[in-house]
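Quarterly update from the structural biology core.
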Amino acid sequence: MRSQILRAIGELTPADENRVLPRIGQVPGANWSEVIEEQTHKLESEFGDALISVILRGSVARQTDVAGVSDLDLCVFTNSASRTGIELCSALIPSLDLDVEYIDVGAFANPTRYHWLKFSMAYSGWTIWGADLISQLPEPKLNVEAIAHLKAVPIRLDQWMVHFDNAADDRARKVVCAWLMKRMVRSIFESEMLQLNAYSRDIYICAKVGVEKWPAYSDHIWRTAEYAIAPVSCAMQISNACFSLKPLLLRLHQNYIAMQDTLSV
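Predicted structure, tokenized:
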């Protein structure tokens, strides 16, 4: 049964005959301008000349965000590996979750590091402050570097409870739930994306592809997708969702391991 909670938002982005995807990052909607200005001002004040660039990722950069649901996903680049990041929060939208990663720009320039992040930024990132690092990245290509979650799904299924137990309150437990459920749904999609020669990060699209491929798991996939955008703080509900999809996810992971050599550039 199709989810009654998920909205049909997003689309598959087709790759060309060489598996190269278009760059789809966009200027964020006007409703985000004040929050983005708020956060970049904090970062400027904290890092000064050490701040190189702030890159927006996620649904806001794809303009598939949902008010009151989507978080703000930022990559903050500095020229000082010794500086620690600061915890960001919004006075304008106190309930907003900010997913922030701090990266030394020198380490990012290393061609042996940050493969998936470079792919993701090239595909749907948008520069909101400072140097346009995205324009310096190679074209996003559907290969092994585009697989972020399927390779690690057994670890996520086994270790999520550690993060859950360390969560301070219900809000933090819901963050853990959303984090896990997104990775489960996107892992299912990643197992099919090379056959489709198309890509998406949007939860509804990833779930829809999974349901079409594995209809026997339809209810479980939709439920997991619902928890990804409307997370719960109940350990039993999260555990049940994991248990329901674990056989499929482990099978898909084994297929990925067996196919790794064919997924290279």
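The radius of gyration is 18 Å.
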